[in-house]
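Figure 6 in text form: structure in, sequence out.
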């Protein structure tokens, strides 16, 4: 059995270990990408939300869906972390503000800003 076949068999038998490792690796890379985009104080640019689970990387000029389909989410995050992808057209928004940004781009209208509840 060659090395390639051995690794394939090992991954199939240890799917739980592989999945756990991949989730942890992606979470760490995602956190690093968010920090690269907005500094150590990671929060939504519009409303100030700071829950990592609610934050997303937004393409300011649109085109995020095309980029993700072309490259995939893991490659996109990896390219940001490795410096292969420039970040000057990216910002961090929470899910609500990101949807609001999409609606503004599609309609051409500026909607009201999302305000902090305090």
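Output sequence:
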């Amino acid at each position: 059995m060659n090395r390639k076949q051995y690794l394939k068999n090992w991954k199939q038998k240890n799917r739980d270990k592989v999945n756990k490792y991949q989730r942890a690796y992606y979470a760490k890379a995602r956190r690093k990408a968010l920090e690269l985009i907005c500094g150590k104080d990671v929060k939504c640019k519009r409303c100030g939300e700071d829950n990592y689970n609610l934050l997303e990387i937004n393409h300011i000029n649109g085109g995020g869906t095309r980029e993700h389909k072309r490259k995939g989410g893991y490659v996109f995050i990896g390219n940001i972390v490795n410096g292969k992808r420039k970040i000057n057209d990216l910002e961090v928004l929470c899910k609500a503000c990101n949807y609001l940004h999409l609606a503004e781009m599609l309609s051409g209208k500026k909607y009201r800003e999302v305000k902090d509840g305090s």
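Caption detail: The chain has a mean pLDDT of 89.
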